[in-house]
Amino acid sequence: MGIKTFFAIVCICMIRLGSSFKTGFESGLICYQCVGTHPGCGLHDFDWRWYWGKICPRSDDRCVKLIERKGSNVVVTRDCLSNLEGFRTDIPADKYEGCRAKSKDVKLGQYTFNRIKELDTKRNFYDNTTWCFCDFDHWCNASNPTSKSNPVLMFGFLLSGFALSSVLAKWS
Questions:
Q1: 27-145: CATH class
Q2: Continuous H helices in the chain
Q3: Is 0.90 surpassed by the pTM of this model?
Q4: What residues does each domain of the chain span?
Q5: Angle separating helix axes 3-17 and 151-171, nearest 10 degrees
């Protein structure tokens, strides 16, 4: 296969993938966005092939992994911090890199005397809520440190290295 054919196939693949293909050189921070009830978005079984990430709307944004536990039930939410700030009042004040426990909002549900516990007006259903923040790397709100290196990005570097080596081989 010639080098022109190879680049044509790569370009067609890029066009087909459209805006979902991320290289890591975009202008904003790229974060995974999913909820633990979706397939492949659990705490330990995160699958990057289902969720390629979204570019966060703010320039100073952070990626968030929100872990909520009730007994053995765990719900994980991955998103940009700016998308969660509008409706979550338990975000910790310290938003630097790392994981922290939720903050307590004493005014939340102060005048509600609700007997329907499923409405959770005081937001006390979960036993443990942990906020994990990161902003130094794209796709940093994945499940573990080994999945920080995005295989799509690695594959792109491998292809570019292969193309460069074949071009250099033809010149020499």
A1: mainly beta
A2: 3-17, 81-84, 151-171
A3: no
A4: 1-24+150-172, 27-145
A5: 160
